[in-house]
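## Example record

The block below lists the input lines for one assembly entry, exactly as stored, with component labels intact.
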Amino acid sequence: MIKVGYIDDVLDQVENYERKLRRFQIELIPFEVGTQKADYIEQIYKNQVEVLLIDYKMASTIGFNGSALISYINDEIPDMTCFILTSAERTHITDKLVIDNQIYSKEIFDTEADDPDRTEQFQKFVEQLKNCAEVYQSRRELKCKEYEELLDKKKSRVLSVPEEEEFCRLYHALSSYGMVEKLSDTALQSDFEQKLDDLLQLGNMILQKE
Amino acid sequence: MLHNKREIGFDVDAYTARLIGRENVSKIEGAILELAKNAYDADASIVCFYYDSQTHSLLIIDNGEGMTEDIICHHWMRVGSSSKKNSFVSASGRVKTGAKGIGRFALDRISDYCEMWTSTKDKALVWDVCWNDFSGSKSITEVKARLYDTDDTLLSFAEIDKWTNLQVAEQLRQPEVRLQGTGTVFKLTGLHDDWSEAMQNKVRRHLENLLPPAAVENFEIYFFNEKTSAEAAKIHSSSIEQFDYKIIFQVTDGSLYHDSDSDSDSESDSDSDSDSESESDSESDSESDSESESDSDSESKSEVKIELIRNEFDVIGKLDLTAAGFSEKDKMYFLGQAIQINLPLRQLVSQPEGKNLIGSFKGTLYFNKVIAPEKERKKYYYKDFTERKNFTKEFGGIKIYRDYFRVRPYGEYGSSDFDWLELSSRRNKQPAAISHGSGRWRVGSEQIMGVVSISRYNSNLEDDANRNGLQDGPGLVQLKEILLAVIDEFERDRQYVGRKLDQYYKEQSRIQAELEELERLAEQRKRWEKEQARESHETKAEDSAHPSIAAPVANPIQVQQLFQDAMEEKNQEIQELLNEVKMLQTLATTGIVTNKFMHEIRTLTNNIGVELNSAYEALVYDNDPAYAVKQIRRAVGNKKHFTSWFNITIGAVSRDKRHRKNCNIYETLSDFMDSWQAVLRKCSAELEFICEPQLKIRCFAMDLENIFSNLISNSISSFERDSLVPLDEKKIMIHISETVNHVLQIDYLDTGWGLSDKYKMHPERTLEAFETDKVAADSGLDEDGTGMGMWIVDQIVRDYQGTVDLTDNKTRGRGYHAVITLGGSND
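Predicted structure tokens for the full assembly:
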């Protein structure tokens, strides 16, 4: 079952969406809404979601619209596909922050009692969600290899500062999904800081000798 | 593995280079203007264009600084290279206008063969080229021009001794013309165009418009053929001697204005001495407001200083200004004192924070009417303009000059860019007369002309490479916005005067008619008394058995009946039109409300669909009837919500609301407010409605509903405005009470964001048609305000002799407050 996050300031239909997606082996996870964009990143990792559905018109309640939130999330997690799910007319969204084929009307969930055309449209939507989740999964696996390499370097204490940062980012992302082994806080401590400590210690020793 | 590295260069076909040039200078008038600009950039004090019809050649002479061999080789011969790119101020301080290194192609546009003589202080050279050499398949480096040293002087190379126009030749030989030293002469032969009289006149007209009137000193242009007199050869810039209104404006960017013009006719006293009684003058508020702000951002300090000079109305000594409602300051304005208006730029432009994208610039516009019916001349006390010609044909419309040189084709009469500010379509949208009580008068594109002076120092206003205007972009958009705002201020002032004069005229006409009627009745009475006296005298003299024969008169009852019938018919017509207007106002309000809540209506429709579909699937796939029932109930709830919508929108036009009757306000509005409360709850907003229960008014119920629907939908828009910090409270409070003389007072207050900067200092402007801020458009959702809602409110309130007072909004931090009075029925 893939996990799809759902961000909307009005959650009155979420139960219907959940039931419908569950029939297609998709678990819909509604997020708590708030005004801090960073909190959504935490919820992504906490809930291990692989795709996101985000309502568009939320500015009057949380201070920004769905497309601005997607822009933020993609800066933090570029591999995560985010869809706009809105009641607004698709062509009326003119801020050009989300590509057209990632904008869906909430009408997609209304298959009008098995109307063949509507059902087909919904199935395509589901396929797209699954496909995006697979892509996200594959990219994470690729990232696992990068992580392993950096971990080796870390163990040999040859990580540069940018590599150190990338290592921490990958660890945070991958460990949230249980894809890499959890490390102790000591193990996570920056090599750079350790090196700095060593250097300072050496300096002290030289001074003491003199 | 890479080896044997070679570097190879690009080349370009000679014909392509020529094609680029022709694309850039496509019109003959453009080519001539380009060459005149080159002379100006070379610090020339004179440039002459001499067309010789016998040899079908054109001679262009200037006394600029000339070119050295180095400049010819490295700049003149190098396509796309211009010595003006980096050093664009000439030795005498002129800001050079060219920079793209394509001006020389203007020569190719004019003729096949070009011979150039040029001399600096040190040396004279002759250069020639046959442009047809560029036509073959040669590479551009294979095309050669020839360069010679020469002993010729400027005038000997121009062969002035052989000219048939002796008069002009004599004039140009005079030492004060200074055509003896440095300069450049082009002999162009094999001209491409037919230089007919019409063509020459066209070029002359363009040259007349090349420079703004009386702005450029020490630069003269001559254009002549063999027959032109010396006097006619000199080009005089087109200027405007007469005007009804003169509008001088200056945009400052909060820092120093880069102005090389010593003639600062637009420099105005920065003190605002506006008259608060005048609509146009109330801007003084905004000035003081902007001054008091301690905004550190220089962009937001940008402002537009406007001076309006009224020269249209001949009212001094002709009418009692006080009786006509004018103030003492108005009197000074009618005497020629300029009206000073200062506006912060942020109120006029759509850029966030009112950012000035262009920098400082200025301009002068003139308004001139060409015709006016006799009745209007009398009514508005127009000054005599019978001798006035249509300036626009000669001068053009609103033209742009960059560092004193024309940026074509803006304002060019007869071209599609004549009305580049789209004043005509603006006027078509708001075609009201200046006397109209509520509609806006808009100036016609042929009634306004003038000059906008920009500079090379301005940003975001680059020339298009093809010398055909400015590049499209935010700078040009902002320029247009500012000009329209300046024009708007002038229109307001003219309409302010027009409305007062119209009212005065009506009052005077009524008094005059009453006097005439009294005079007529007195005359009638006198005649009747005379008749009576004569008749009684004759009766005594004659036989009393013969009664006097009365003059045939109309039956007074019949006359009265006819009069009543006519009046009834008229009243019926008026009533029908009134009903029609009411219906249209209601339909417009329905449209506005529906449009504003399209998102909510769509959400509601989606929800019902999803709920019914979920109920179906719960039964068919999950065998869960309880869930199905739950969803059906929710769908029914949403359906009820739809009913609220219908009550507000479709319900507004129901038949019983279309008749004027005595209404108990509370009872009339109770259901309507309930419906709004239901709608607002969905938007997480609250509505408090307090109305004294005994209040009555004779009205159309739809009028009251229209007032509130428009106000409430505006409040909801405000509640939903994008903001980093959401509103704490979304509440609307409506309180209806009765004040003195049975005047109803509606106190409307919301807790939204309040009016945008555009209307903060002038909230009354929101009552005009098509006035809308752009907040909705900026939200990313393509929803735009219609600008009709508050206009409809104002129209309705006027019908009831009421007022809409929005002044509290000027000082409110947040929230919107309207105090509306309704004076009772108007029948």
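The first strand of chain B starts at residue 46 and ends at 52. DSSP finds 22 helices and 21 strands in chain B.
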